[in-house]
Amino acid sequence: MVIEVSHLVIARAMFGTTMAFHIIFATLGIGIPFMILISELMFLKTKDQDYSIMAKRWTRVKGVLLGVAIPSGTIAGVSLSLLWPGFMEVIGRVMALPFQIEIYAFFIEALFLSIYVYAYDRISTKARIISLILVTFGALASAVLISNVHAFEGTPAGFRVVNGKIVDVNPWAAFFNPAFFITAGHVSLTALMTGSFVFAGTSGFKMLRNSPGSRSYQFHAKALVMSLILGGVISLISALSGHASAQYLYEYQPEKLAAAEGLFETQSHAPLTIGGSVDPEKQEVKHAIEIPWALSFLAGNRFDTVVRGLNEFPRDYWPPLFIHTMFNGMVGIGMYSILVAIIGVYWLKFKKKTVVPKWMLFAFFLSAPLSILAIEFGWILACTGRQPWTIYHILSTADSVTSQQNLGILYLLFILVYLLLGIVVIAVLYFYFKRNPLIHELSGQTDPDDKNYPAH
Amino acid sequence: MYGLSLTDEILGITLIWGFVFIYAVMGAMDFGAGFWSMIYINRDKTNVTNIANRYLSPTWEVTNVFIVALVVAIYSMFPRAAYSLGTILLIPGSLILLLITIRSAFLVFSHAAEKYKRLLIYVSGITGILIPGLLIAVLPISQGGYVIEQNGRESLSLGLLFTSPNVYAFIAFAIISSLFLSSLLLADYSKTAGDLRAYGVYRRDALITGPISLICAFLIMVTLKTEANWIYIKMMDNLPLLITSAACFILTGALLMIPGGKGLKGIPRLAVIVTIIQFLLAGFVYGRAHLPYIIYDNETIRTGFTDPSSFRAVFIVYVVGFAILFPGFYFFWRLFMRDRSVRQTD
Ligand code: HDD
Ligand code: HEM
Ligand code: HEM
Fold it and tell me: In this predicted structure, which of A272-276, A408-412, B125-129 has the lowest mean pLDDT?
């Protein structure tokens, strides 16, 4: 029995690690082309060469990240079958469509990215913008489709189980399961938001290292204003869509909401609990701040909404309680981003200051790693919070896992490869931009080497 | 044919066979090209390595999409078989994934940093040999005999696997034929690019690896006879096709010998086409004999099949998807080709 448990735990850890690694590159794979598109549009509108340079330099970044996004995604896709054969058997029968359509989304993205990158100088600005729109569309579509499998895991639909057999399959009903639109919206918005704050963070970092008034400082200030305005708007909408996600949890996965909030007793006028750690023995959240009535209002838009607590569910069905921290972290970062964007836009746009205080630049810089962290928190909340199920109240994680033993060594190998890739990505970007500093491009030199073709 | 009519199952397995074939051919060229660029890394005065590299850069991404498409096709059409395959293939599958990951990542990185170019060439060369060898092991595994049951669980016996002459014959065949296919293709590619030095080298390599790959194919048949007799017998039902396939092989050899214009020997473009037909025939005979089993003798295409309404939806999506994508591909291909001729002239 001891061996059983640890075997399942390794499989979960292994898949979680793969996803946590992939999601960084996947999210940036949506956010960065989106920001390149915005830069190209700004260039079209203002004819300011700086925006074009921005687009070119970020295209390089995108090219390198793709080298990790694609193989790690391949691992994600294949290891679903290798690690969770029981789960994929059900998915294959009922929910194969999103995976199927996703292949086409990948094709669209790959085709138009190649066109944008390889033929950059040969096609018109309009053709470039169309290509970028299609790249962003392809990336968003693949994210929406794959997240839809996740949505289905939380709100399964389109089939019935009779005596252990799957009957009455309706693949399109499964596709449009109740959480489809909410999940799609939140995942897309937060990916675009992450793109904006990665731009803002990079600019903040660069401005910290250049003296005010220098050409580089001005260049990055433009990128900063653009991304803060965009990021501010998108993070506001993201927060609203996150609110919608929480309301759907209230309706469809009440255990998850209860664990995320550390709520034990079912009650109306339930308080919103922020911070602290959930203690299952004392049935309380230690060291937390409580906002009376707020949770009831959030869950149902009325203070007398009855929110179900953990005690209403068998203890075996409780998700791990640390997801409370994940939830707080994600929401906290969302609030931080909105705040930072407001401060930045006020300072740069309304006060029209050209010099930004260091502490503010540092705050902008932080928003980049934080938004990626929020993506991680969100997924851990969503996936770990679904435990012990892979398909909510239908298929348990223990019944999904492979029967193969000795996963430990494989897990170790995967970790080593992810470490290697992580280090190499950073090194490659570092050397590339060291060899091709911004100042070269600003002084009118065009990029001498088109690295997309190896030397002849 | 042979009592099988065109049912949904046959349609599904044919689609999967098609993906396997496309991936096998594209993958062989891709992996083989990696190996050749490693072998010729120190011949700086010729363009032999660069030819291989130039071919490699734009293709791996499309090749990669096909392996994803293949896995998706298997679990969406034969979920029960995917369950067994997933369980049995955990270890070889994970190793393949790790190798593919390292390889694709370094392919992309090498374009961003000159520093890594040599390292990349070694990485892609070595993985280019290992990956086909591991991938093909799936075939003998699916023929049965290597899966043991312990306390009600199925698992792959690595001991049995690595003492089987049949497995080694398959591995040798995969490696050699990926070198053969890629040298043929690179010969054609360098002839088109007008690089006669490289053409001579790759033509010679094709002439060396070709006969060895034929010997490996015979070894597969010989070992099949003793180790998986059921499939051997059914393959022999299609002996005429096998003989045609061997004839195509000889034709390929001839096409490389005859004069081909510009004072050169060989018409590589035709040789590539004939070789692909040869693989198509042999692959068809093998696949046909494998039916109705997906994994001998516990999963057939009938036991493994998905829900009919799911199949219909998935199939419609395939048809619509490819209809939409085809013009996109065509456009891409034209842009890409024109792009290349522009580069050649300047
Ligand atoms: C930049 C990233 C980011 C930010 C700032 C937020 N989220 Fe989020 N959240 C995600 C990134 C994310 C995500 C990674 O995209 C998740 C994981 C699974 C999913 O569907 O989206 C997610 C899931 C997720 C879920 C769980 C859905 C499920 O279990 O399926 C809830 C309840 C919320 N979010 C709520 C919020 C609220 C109220 C936010 C307030 C600002 C918020 N999120 C900000
Ligand atoms: C991309 C971001 C994602 C991250 C970071 C992520 C993270 C995780 C983590 C940490 C686990 C382990 C949970 C635990 O056992 O405590 C897990 C499990 C799982 N996730 Fe996700 N996940 C992501 C996306 C998805 C998507 C899109 C799907 C649906 C296709 C999915 C399906 C699963 C399944 C099937 C498991 C295994 C069973 C389980 O433990 O529930 N995940 N994931
Ligand atoms: C279990 C969950 C997931 C699986 C099985 C999966 C699968 C894949 C695969 C197979 C690829 C490589 C595609 C190729 O070969 O071209 C990929 C890349 C990618 N995935 Fe994931 N993915 C998962 C989760 C996610 C999520 C949650 C997102 C977004 C929120 C996402 C967005 C992307 C993006 C943007 C790429 C980059 C592809 C490209 O740029 O071509 N993926 N994924």
Answer: A272-276
Residue of minimum CA distance from atom 30 in ligand 3: A143
Q: Which residues fall within 8 angstroms of residue A223, CB to CB, at 6 or more apart?
A: A39, A54, A199, A200, A202, A203
pLDDT band at B53 (very low <50, low <70, confident <90, very high): low
**Is there a contact between A171 and B313 if contact means CB atoms under 8 Å apart?**
yes
pLDDT at B339: 45
Three-class SS of residue A347?
helix
- Does B114 score more than 70 pLDDT? no
Task: Kindly report which listed range (A8-12, A199-203, B83-87) carries the lowest average pLDDT score.
Answer: B83-87
Query: For residues A220 and A207, is the Cβ–Cβ distance under 8 A?
Result: yes
C-alpha A12 to ligand 2 mean position (Å): 8
Cis peptide before A279 (omega within 30 of 0): no
Buried b (16+ CB within 10 A) or exposed e, A229-249: bbbbbbbbebbebbeebbbbb
Give the count of alpha carbons within 13 A of B126, CB side only. 8
Residues for chain A: how many in total? 456
Tokens at B181, concatenated: 């296919």
Residue B324 CA, ligand 3 centroid: distance in Å: 21
Higher pLDDT: B144 or A198? It is A198
Distance CA B23, CA B19 (A): 6
| Mean pLDDT, rounded, for B246-265 | 80
Q: Is A326 in the pocket of ligand 2 (CB under 6 A)?
A: no
Backbone angles phi, psi at B173, to 5 degrees: -60, -45
* Ligand 1 contact via A298 beta carbon (within 6 Å): no
Contact between A135 and A58 under an 8 Å Cβ cutoff? The reply is: no
Q: Which residues contact B186 (CB under 8 A, 6 or more apart)?
A: B33, B36, B51, B52, B55, B198, B202
Spatial separation of the C-alpha atoms in residues B219 and B215, rounded to whole Å: 6
**Per-residue pLDDT, B55:** 54
Which chain A residues have a beta carbon less than 8 Å from that of B121? none
- The sign of the dihedral angle between the CA atoms of B202, B203, B206, B207 is negative
Strand partners, A278: A285
